[in-house]
Write a structure and sequence with these properties.
This protein is an alpha+beta fold. The protein has helices spanning about 1-85, 105-120; strands spanning about 90-95, 95-105, 125-130. The longest helix has about 80 residues, at about 1-85.
């Protein structure tokens, strides 16, 4: 009888050990899954943040590029106007839209200044606000 009781006790202990081993594996798997899920969430959030920063940098770069282009357009037009003897003209460029201000000697110079501006690369449109005033 003692032998049967000992064997029965051993079987029960083994069964319990097997169950607790299975529970330990499940706990380990669950913890591993939670860690993997947390890591994936972190990676996704970091990726979203990086994309948002990249988009902001692109927008800033585009703004800086537009400002540089506007400055280059203004410089080109002023150089062409001076080369054609049209002095005293104020040239402003914003987003490719050129505004000509100031005084010129005659209608021909006013028309010529507008044509020079329109023919310059990068110009979308020209606002000709030049006035005609005979120089003394």
């Amino acid at each position: 009888m003692k032998l049967k009781l000992t064997i029965l006790t051993a079987v029960v202990i083994m069964a319990l050990a097997g169950c607790s081993s299975e529970n330990a594996n499940q706990t380990t798997n669950t913890a591993g899954q939670k860690t993997a899920n947390a890591a994936n969430t972190t990676v996704n959030r970091n990726s979203e943040t990086a994309n948002a920063i990249s988009n902001k940098n692109t927008e800033s770069s585009n703004s800086v590029g537009a400002a540089i282009s506007d400055t280059a357009i203004t410089a080109k037009i002023k150089t062409k106007l001076l080369a054609d003897g049209i002095a005293g003209t104020n040239v402003d460029t914003v987003n490719g839209v050129v505004t000509l201000k100031g005084a010129v000697d005659n209608a021909e110079e006013k028309t010529k200044a507008e044509k020079i501006a329109k023919d310059t690369d990068g110009v979308k449109s020209v606002k000709n606000e030049l006035t005609i005033e005979k120089k003394k």
